[in-house]
Amino acid sequence: MRSLICRRHCQFFKPAADEPEKCLGYEFLAAWVRLEPGLAAALDQLPPGSAPETEQLAQVSKLLCPRCVFRLHGCDYADPAGPADASPCGGLMALADLLSRGLIRLPEIKAAWERLLDGFYLRLAEHASLRLLEKPYLYDRLSDELYELNQEGFDWLARCDGTRSGLAAQADPEFLDFLLAESLVAVCTEPRPRPLHLRQSPLPSLRYLELMLTARCNLRCVHCYLGDQGHTDLPLASVLAALQELEAMQGLRALLSGGEALLYPHWEELNARLRDFELRFILLSNGTLLDGDTLSRLQVHEIQISLDGLEAGHELIRGRGTWSRTVANLQAALARGLMVSVATMIHAGNQQELAELGQLLQEWGVREWGLDVPCFTGRLAQHPELYLDPAQAAPYLNLGFGGSDHGKVGDFACGIHHLAVLPTGQVAKCGLFAHRPVGHVQEGLETCWLRLPRLKLSELECAGCPYLTECRGGCRFRAGEGLAPDPVMCALYGIDPKKIKRLTDDQDL
């Protein structure tokens, strides 16, 4: 079938490649030929590379493309924002050509789809994973969408391992239509097994792991909270073991940072292994080393680039000449179709530039812009002139856009789903709490995670604040590592932290 359909009609055909997921045009036509062998003779009449009528191609595309696993991820033809000259898959071309030549009719195609659907093997998409967190979820690591499921939906999806036919008849039709439309389930003509590794995550769930691969950095940013860390590198074996354990613990994202992650001595080997894991990988970088060769080899799903203002504001803290290099590499990444987000630190030298920066980032097509107020530690402690009072800095937090937070659960303060592995191998709540490690990565990620002290919102001095569920206590390091309010979050919501009193049965704010 591949030779009859793909080799003849698909410009993307690769004889040596036999991916577990194939375009729905191929899967449907291959199944139809098995149901009606006479179709093979009709296919054999089609000249290789023949061009069907535009109208017939549109009719076939309207039926199949919305249900194809590649529609949202990897198909320029089905993507409304894709290039105008994008070519459809070979299956669509062959079906449309059969239709154009009168060898089949459109009602026959529609009827065949209805007849074949229950016999297909349904397979959870390669880019999607079932996750047993506080609740059952389905995670799309390409779009970073986390879908909450009821138990019935989860149990049905757990059977979509590519080995069972007849699952479509057992599904709620609306649920199945949604999964197909969101490219979360692949339709297969024949069994294509896909192991699904399910276990209950520890509670609370570890969803996001920052791997600080190296202390090496090519810049000496004056606001860096890490200060001078030397050249310590996390062993590659420790990195891979942590990723395996994160995946087993039902984790979602791995953030690859430093220092500058691209200076990690084992970067190329690690980069080549990333697609072995059912995790979303985000590279945190200052952007200056993202040249064309590096971008062409990247296996991450997203790059988060630090851009701290326009040229003057950015270079005030990152050094002369860094802005133009960073912006050029950011735009090159976007031109390659890579997903890019931007992180910006608010300081005294860039506050007047932030509104214009936001406009530029939206024009360039950046996915997300996150702003934060740096903590007065590390090198910033040596440059107090750059530190903004929280009342001045906080309003700029509202300029950000995008947002990729999957939400938080339970009565817990910041960091409820986050853990960091430092270049030394020590494990801590985040890099700011490097002085309070909870263990070493060699002890096991889960062991360290379960040791992590968890501060409840109800224990904070600001427990009675009406905005507590929104700010979740803010940054605990910025709050002085105790129970006091985070002054930046208080300023953001217009609260005077000195007037906040913890509520008792007979107290009000």
List the strand order in the largest sheet. Answer: 12-11-10-9-8-7-13-14-15
What oligomeric state is this? single chain
State the separation between the terminal residues, measured CA to CA: 72 Å
Give the helix level as a range of percent. Answer: 25-40%
* Overall morphology: elongated
- Tally of separate helices: 19
Name the CATH superfamily classification of the largest domain. Answer: Aldolase class I
Uncertain runs = 502-509
Number of self-contained structural domains: 3
* Structure classification: alpha/beta
What number is the mean pLDDT?
92
The CATH topology annotation of the largest domain reads as: TIM Barrel
Over all CA atoms, what is the radius of gyration? 26 Å
CATH domain class name of the largest domain:
Alpha Beta
CATH second-level architecture of the largest domain: Alpha-Beta Barrel
Can you summarize this structure?
Helix content is 32%, strand content 14%.
Overview of this structure, please?
Helix content is 32%, strand content 14%. By secondary structure, it is an alpha/beta fold. The chain folds into 3 domains: 2-117, no CATH class; 122-188, no CATH class; 219-404, TIM Barrel. The strands form 3 sheets. A 9-stranded mixed beta sheet has the order 12-11-10-9-8-7-13-14-15, with helices on one face.
